[in-house]
Every structure is written in structure tokens, then in C-alpha cells.
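Most newcomers find our protein records easier to grasp once they have seen one. A record pairs a protein's sequence with a compact description of its fold. An example says more than a description, so a record of this kind follows:
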Amino acid sequence: MRHKRWRIWLWIFAAVVVLLYLVGANFLVSAALVPSTMEKLDAFARITKDSYEALVQTDDIQQQNAKAWEETQEWAEKAHGQKLERTTEDGYRLVAQEIFTEEESHKWVLLLHGYTGWKEAMYPFAAWYNERGYHVIVPDMRCQGESEGDFIGMGWTDRLDNMMWIDYILQQDSEAEIVIHGQSMGAASALMMTGEKNLPGNVKAVISDCAFTDAYTMFGEKMKEWFHLPEFPLLDTANLMLQIRGGYDLKDASALEAVKKSETPTLFIHGDQDEMIDVKMAEGLYRAEACKEKELLIVEGAGHAQSQDKDPEGYFGTVEEFLGRCNPAVE
């Protein structure tokens, strides 16, 4: 009888451990990918603080960043545009800002922000393109900014959402020559879009600034950095929870696999001091990229998403030269 009770208690203990494990994995998904939960846990503030501390803090970068935002403010006061809204197939309202150009042009750019970001973070790039005759579309990706959603898409669900903005551009201008320029998760999403068979030929180039190779690897790394949790075996369980609750698999969210099928000219940019996304990921993406026209720019001394501030002339000069080489019509 005593032996039987011992086995019952052992099974109860095992069941409790498994339950707590599953609850922990489920909680991890919410803490990293559900904005409402992230806000309650102050995860946004913690991630923002950790991200800031990982940046390169040098005078030249800080001064250039301040100058860029000052110039962006001056541009924004004169810029004209309108707010756009679209509804996804799963019922979420997405918001984007369209910024007009004063001259007639078939040049368009879609600007994509990063993880836990918002459209306004891409306004310095919007100013640069707009001043060169581009119509600009800057969306808030799902769950972020003004856009609705339940789970941050890590670029994967976003790739389909962003196709809605491509469709909008083509509705306005069937001759549009489109550039997709993304940073971090936005860059990864742009690369994932290039792997889609239905990506229109109007997309002439992608500028991928500090993209990650795949969401599964990124999620595993940030589990350890942000939540101090072991990657094994929690990562696969968390991914299963995400599939059940969020409807997508982190392993599918792979920019690396997408670029192997890409025919879209792509410029990869990365800072060699990036502590958020290792520069080796950019090198891996560049090597795997299947398109004929590709280039890799490594900016010395730049941290995550800081390349344009570390070397603005080199950054934007390379972008302009690359776009002209890929499609003289947008030069």
C-alpha cells in the first residue's frame, strides 16, 4: 500500500512539474510577443533599456543621430501625406503613413521598422527618400504602433501584411518602381517577402539593414539574454505554444531560406559592433542570397541599427549607388 501511495505522489509531482513547465513556456511567448502582456510586465521598458545599453555610445554616432532627427523634424513640418488603413485576412486593422512627393514620379519606397518599433522610427529614412522624389509608405506592423494584432509576427506574418501595402502602391501606380527598406525585424520581413513567388516584379530592390537570419535562432538567443532561461528544452515548447496560440512557427520565419529563392537585388548592411544581431548573420544571408545583384556593406564601429549614424555618407551613398545600379529608372 505504501509503495502504491509513493507512485501516486510521484505521478502527481511529475504532472505538476509538466504543468508548470508548460505554463512557463506559454508565459514566455506572451512576455516576448504579446504587447499587452509585455506592457504589464514592463518588458518593453526592459527590452528598450537592454537594447540601448547594447548600442555603441560614441560622440560621433550620438551627434549624427541628433542631427538626423533635427533634419527629420524640419522635413516633417513641410511634408504632406495621409494615413492609410487596411484590414488583414484574420481581421486586424493595420495603419500606415503615406507621404507624397511634390513631383510626378514612379519611385516608391516601403519602409519597415524593427521589433517593438513603430513607423515614426523610420522617418529619417522617409525624409531621405522623399527628398529624392520617392512616394513613401511607412506602416506600423501588426501589434505595434497604431496597428492591431495579438502576436508580434517576427517578420513572418508581417511578410503577408506588407504585401497589402505593395498592392496599394500598384493600385495607385501600375508602373511603380518599388524599393523595400527595412531595419532589424523589418529587414528580415523584407527578405522573407523576396522568397514569395507572388512578389511583383515592380519590387526592384531590397535594402536589408541588420536583419536576422531566422526568428527561431533569435528567439533562443533572447531567451537567455532577456529572461535568463535555458534555450533547451524550453525553446521548442515555447514554439509549440506559439503555433497553437499565434498561428505561426518560428522555424518558418526564416530570411535565410527566403533569400535562397530570391531574384530581387539586395543590399545587406550591418554594423560590425552589433550586439543585438551578430554581423555573422548578415554574412550568412549574403552568401545564401540567390539573386545576381547583391552587395554587403559592413560599417565599422556601428552597433545595432546605427550604421546610418556612424557613416551617413557611406551608408546613403552605397544605397543610392546600389539602387541606381539595380534599376537606372530609380536613380
About this structure: Residues 320 and 331 are 7 Å apart (CA to CA). DSSP finds 13 helices and eight strands in the chain. The longest helix spans residues 2-33.
